[in-house]
Amino acid sequence: MKRIILSFISILLLCGYSSSDFDIDSFDQYDKEYQSEEYEVCSSSDVKTYESYRAITNTASKQYEIISKLTIDDTTGFLYDEDGFIAVALGSHFGALGSRYYITLSSGNVIPIIKADAKSDHHVEGGCSSAGGSVIEFIIDEQISREYFGQGPSGLASYGNFNNYPSLNGTIVKIEKVLDTKIEEGIYYEELPEEGKVVNLNDITY
Question: How far apart are CA 160 and CA 186, in angstroms?
């Protein structure tokens, strides 16, 4: 069972996403559940840094509100919401906190993310990438991530760049902003029925 984030004082309840469904090694087979619209790719950088969720301590902030509703994956140390969107810090180019995106990498893998923290415009060029080129900054439990992804001499998980991990490797080639509406499977016919023909419902493909 996945651990629920400690809100520094109280234990919070999981919001419904099945912990067994969270698997970063399945991004090559990721199925989008929500409608989305294409968003400007402000940088194609492959750098993917991180920050500790424990650094978000202002209990009155929107960041804290979002983080307190997320779940920590006890294998990778990543945080995710009720739909499996992974918590990251993004620049102002990506709009309001709580916005969600599908990020397609050059490998073809699709990473679902939620903007849970905001990078300061003082440190981010054009509201997009910070020094070193990082666009996506994962929010993690460092101890768990170091154990899973390994660490370099500096003690940083995945040597400070999650691009080192195969499922997260690659440049950004496409960004889609996730909308509130879920994708519904349409009803369609294998072939159009003849005019005037009575259609048997059993012939309809879903």
Answer: 43
The answer to whether 94 touches 117, Cβ cutoff 8 Å, is: no
Number of C-beta neighbours around residue 7 at 10 A: 13
CA separation, residue 55 to residues 42, 65, 78 (Å) = 26, 14, 15
Instruction: List, as one string, the DSSP characters of 77-141.
Output: -BEE-TT-PEEEEE-GGG-STT-EEEEEETTS-EEEEEEEEE--TTTEETTTEETTS--EEEEE-
Name 86's bridge partners.
80, 113
3-state secondary structure of 191: coil
Report the alpha-carbon distance of residue 97 to residue 99 in Å, rounded.
6
The confidence score (pLDDT) of residue 6 equals 40
The C-alpha atoms of residue 199 and residue 206 are separated, in whole angstroms, by 15
Q: What is the pLDDT of residues 7-45, one digit of tens each?
A: 332 333 334 555 678 999 999 999 999 999 999 999 999
Residue 157: beta bridge partners? Answer: 151
Give the chain's end-to-end CA distance (angstroms, integer): 33
Q: Look up the pTM and report it.
A: 0.82
Q: What is the reported pLDDT for 203?
A: 52
pLDDT at 41: 98
